[in-house]
Amino acid sequence: MYTREQTSKLRQAFWTAFGQYMAPVVSAEGMPTNWINYKTGLKDVFFKMQTDKKKASIGIELNQRDPEIQQLFFEQFEALKDLLHEAVGEEWEWDLHTYDEQGKLVSRIYTELPGVSVFNQNDWPALISFFKPRIIALDAFWNDAKYSFDELR
After folding, report:
1. Contact status, residue 97 vs residue 105, Cβ threshold 8 Å
2. How many angstroms separate the CA atoms of 51 and 56, rounded?
3. How many domains, in total, are found in the chain?
4. Cα 143 → chain centroid
5. C-alpha neighbours within 13 Å on the C-beta side of residue 36
């Protein structure tokens, strides 16, 4: 069992290592990118990578406060579902109006890797191998898809 401080340090060490590993990788537009805090350019639309003691996940999270607006964004992503799945090379889960860890209403499009722990450094290569191709694929998808959201800005 880890203390809160040890937990925080291990998480920080993993994300620092991942950031350093990804630093030489440029975006689909050929620009340097902060892969960990990826900027979609759309308010309340995030690409999130998360890992804990049991699994890792990566996906698109919609955080609009108005459920109807959130649903409009979700439906726009649904219209691009084939493009997304082609970019990432796999089918992802689609959850309209679910709740996050803080009880906030969100919608998510994501995939998970079970059986890995950020607290086990032996799992870090598997975590990096899970996150890297998917965040790069999300970036490539977004490079083409972002213009479909212009009317929702």
Report:
1. yes
2. 4
3. 1
4. 15
5. 15
Alpha helices in 23-123 (DSSP H): 67-79, 81-88
Q: Residue 3: which pLDDT band, with cuts at 50, 70 and 90?
A: confident
pLDDT in tens, 67-118: 999 999 999 999 999 999 999 999 999 999 999 989 999 999 999 999 999 9
pTM of the model: 0.93
CATH number at residue 94: 3.30.1460
Residue 27 lies in a domain: no
Expressed as residue numbers, the domain containing 11 is 4-22+34-152
Q: Decide if 112 is inside a domain.
A: yes
Query: Minimal CA–CA distance to 18: which of 133, 145, 94, 127?
Result: 127
pLDDT given for residue 11 in this prediction:
94
Evaluate whether residue 131 is within a structural domain.
Answer: yes
Q: From edge to edge, which strands make up the β-sheet containing 105-114?
A: 45-51, 55-62, 105-114, 93-99
Would residue 130 count as lying in a domain? yes
Instruction: Give the Cα separation of 97 and 105 in Å (integer).
Output: 6
By residue count, the chain amounts to: 153
Q: List b or e across 122-136, with b for residues whose CB sees 16 or more CB atoms inside 10 angstroms.
A: ebbeebbebbbebbb
